[in-house]
């Protein structure tokens, strides 16, 4: 594959695939964020739950994640800003009615035992 699902410009195998395969851990919150976007594209709800911080996992249902990931057509990801434990991004997708939508979020990530996890996000209308 020429370009990873997260549109980093790198091949999938050199970008998000090792994280989704659990053969490597993302070294930065941006890498984790990108791999989570790719997980939405691939409907990998297990990965999305596993990379959510343990303190927040109770708020997420695997079935809901799967439904959300499958009901939309994921078009592309745009990382606006990434620094320290914060990543601001826009995910462009078509909803069930084939309408253009943008999910704009500023995500916070947290490390546990040197592994990065998604903590929570601030959403913009
Ligand atoms: Zn990627």
Q: Can you tag this structure with a few keywords?
A:
26% helix; Nuclear Transport Factor 2, Chain: A; 125 residues; 4-stranded antiparallel sheet; alpha+beta; binds zinc ion
**Strand segment tally:** 4
Number of helices: 4
CATH domain class: Alpha Beta
Structural class estimated from helices and strands? alpha+beta
Number of domains: 1
**Main beta sheet:** 4 strands, antiparallel
Mean pLDDT: 96
Spatial shape: globular
Low-confidence stretches: none
As a whole number of angstroms, the C-alpha radius of gyration is 14 Å
What portion of the residues fall into strands of 2 or more residues?
A: 25-35%
Q: Can you tell me the CATH architecture?
A: Roll
How do the strands line up in the largest sheet? 1-2-3-4
Small ligands present: zinc ion
In sequence order, what are the helices and strands, one letter per element? HHHHEEEE
Helical content, roughly? Answer: 25-40%
Q: What can you tell me about this protein's structure?
A:
With 125 residues, this protein is an alpha+beta fold. It has a single domain (12-124), classed as Nuclear Transport Factor 2, Chain: A (Roll). It contains four helices and four strands. It has helices at 17-20, 29-41, 45-50, 62-71; strands spanning 73-83, 86-94, 100-112, 115-124. A four-stranded antiparallel β-sheet has the order 1-2-3-4, covered by helices on one side. Strand 1 and strand 2 form a beta hairpin. The protein is globular. It starts with 16 loop residues before the first helix and ends with a strand. The relative contact order is 0.17. The model has no long low-confidence stretch (mean pLDDT 96). Bound molecules: zinc ion (ZN).
């Amino acid at each position: 594959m020429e370009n990873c699902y997260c549109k980093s410009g790198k091949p999938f195998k050199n970008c998000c695939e090792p994280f989704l395969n659990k053969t490597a851990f993302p070294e930065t919150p941006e890498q984790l964020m990108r791999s989570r976007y790719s997980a939405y594209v691939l409907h990998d709800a297990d990965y999305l739950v596993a990379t959510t911080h343990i303190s927040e996992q109770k708020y997420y249902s695997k079935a809901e994640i799967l439904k959300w990931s499958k009901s939309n057509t994921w078009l592309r990801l745009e990382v606006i800003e990434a620094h320290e434990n914060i990543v601001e991004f826009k995910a462009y997708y078509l909803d069930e009615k084939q309408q253009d939508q943008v999910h704009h979020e500023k995500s916070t990530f947290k490390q546990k035992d040197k592994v990065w996890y998604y903590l929570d996000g601030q959403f913009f209308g």
